[in-house]
């Protein structure tokens, strides 16, 4: 791993390391301060509340461990989501942090996630004549079923592994895509 | 969750604690509320709160379950094909209580140490098995997981946060997706 460049990042890297042994709730600011070799007050200055810490940690994990492959077509999108679900299965503690962070009341002016913009861009190109309401319905549904939340719910509530979760994802988005007429899709 | 969920029976004191905490979450705009404040609001001693809920996480999870079962209780659906209507209604109610909706959504995403992520599952399974018994196991589970996922506070959170949707649009999009899930089984009901 690269050497962290600043205090804020060093704290996140330490928190991520502690996640191997502890749940997020068990990671105290005291422990983070000791790991990084700074005062507890400095941790608070960077992350005034645990919600701030959770949001920042999730962003950092997303960038370092779950980069999203680019996609243009629906087929590429599905493949990218499958890769993500498999990556979540390989690092469940990290994926649960992502799922939690996306459910909390936003701490900052939270920008929509990159995957949201990528899905909207995909539909702009692939289904350019689709009316605005159906496009938003579809984009929101694709986004929600490709989320860490979907993975977390199926893993915890249904005891499913990545392969089964990918299959459930394909079936769900398949029903949504099937609501559109064939003529909607741009011909390659 | 959809329809009546299994919620552990609470003592009067416990119900007062959970209601007080939920009230404070809405006032403060965060679940970061001290036990002392919860105790004062419930009109009991702080040690009584600790005796019932030894840690902050215990208190939060119990409160989230209580919120789902009371504030966000669903009207019972009598058909799986009524679920989109229940989802539409649920989204509108999450929108009226945003802080509580966030708490419910977040606690369900904590893995095994969190709240049950799909409280309405048994009810959905009963409806589906009675109305469309011919599905194979994989098809059945696909319908159940998709509806469980949609019938949750996380839907409201995601649609609002990622797409800036208002109450009406969230309810519309969530119900639309649920109808899509049902498209595959619409004409397969048992006689």
TrEMBL record, chain A:
InterPro entries xref list: Homeodomain-like_sf (IPR009057), HTH_TetR (IPR001647)
SUPFAM superfamilies, alphabetized: Homeodomain-like (SSF46689)
DNA-binding region, residue range(s): 28-47
Keyword Cytoplasm on entry: no
Keywords: DNA-binding
Superkingdom, taxonomy of origin: Bacteria
GO-annotated molecular function: DNA binding
Residue ranges of domain HTH tetR-type in the record: 5-65
Entry protein name: HTH tetR-type domain-containing protein
Organism: Dactylosporangium siamense
TrEMBL record, chain B:
Keywords: DNA-binding
InterPro entries assigned: Homeodomain-like_sf, HTH_TetR
Residues annotated to bind DNA: 34-53
Molecular function GO terms recorded: DNA binding
Domain of life assignment: Bacteria
Keyword flag DNA-binding: yes
Name recorded for this polypeptide: HTH tetR-type domain-containing protein
């Amino acid at each position: 791993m690269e050497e962290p460049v600043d205090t804020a990042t060093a704290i996140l890297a330490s928190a991520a390391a502690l996640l191997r042994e502890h749940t997020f709730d068990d990671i105290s600011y005291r422990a983070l301060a000791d790991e990084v070799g700074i005062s507890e007050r400095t941790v608070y200055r960077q992350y005034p509340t645990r919600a701030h810490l959770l949001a920042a940690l999730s962003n950092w994990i997303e960038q370092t461990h779950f980069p999203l492959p680019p996609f243009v077509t629906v087929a590429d999108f599905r493949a990218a989501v499958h890769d993500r679900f498999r990556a979540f299965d390989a690092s469940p503690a990290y994926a649960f942090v992502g799922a939690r962070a996306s459910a909390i009341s936003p701490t900052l002016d939270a920008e929509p996630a990159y995957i949201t913009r990528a899905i909207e861009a995909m539909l702009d190109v692939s289904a350019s004549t689709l009316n605005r309401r159906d496009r938003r319905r579809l984009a929101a549904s694709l986004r929600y079923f490709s989320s860490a939340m979907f993975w977390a719910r199926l893993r915890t509530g249904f005891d499913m592994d990545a392969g089964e979760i990918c299959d459930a994802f394909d079936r769900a988005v398949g029903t949504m895509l099937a609501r559109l007429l064939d003529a909607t899709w741009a011909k390659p | 969750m959809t329809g009546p969920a299994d919620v552990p029976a609470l003592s009067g004191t416990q119900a007062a604690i959970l209601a007080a905490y939920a009230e404070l979450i809405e006032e403060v705009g965060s679940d970061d509320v001290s036990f002392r404040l919860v105790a004062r609001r419930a009109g009991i001693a702080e040690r009584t709160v600790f005796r019932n809920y030894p840690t902050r996480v215990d208190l939060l999870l119990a409160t989230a379950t209580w919120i789902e079962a009371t504030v966000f209780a669903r009207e019972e659906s009598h058909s799986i094909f009524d679920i989109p209507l229940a989802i539409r209604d649920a989204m509108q109610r999450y929108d009226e209580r945003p802080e509580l909706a966030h708490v419910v959504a977040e606690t369900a995403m904590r893995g095994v140490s969190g709240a049950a992520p799909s409280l309405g599952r048994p009810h959905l399974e009963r409806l589906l098995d009675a109305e469309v018994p011919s599905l194979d196991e994989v098809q059945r589970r696909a319908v159940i997981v998709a509806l469980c996922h949609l019938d949750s506070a996380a839907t409201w959170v995601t649609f609002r946060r990622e797409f800036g949707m208002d109450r009406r649009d969230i309810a519309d999009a969530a119900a639309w997706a649920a109808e899509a899930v049902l498209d595959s089984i619409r004409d397969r009901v048992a006689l």
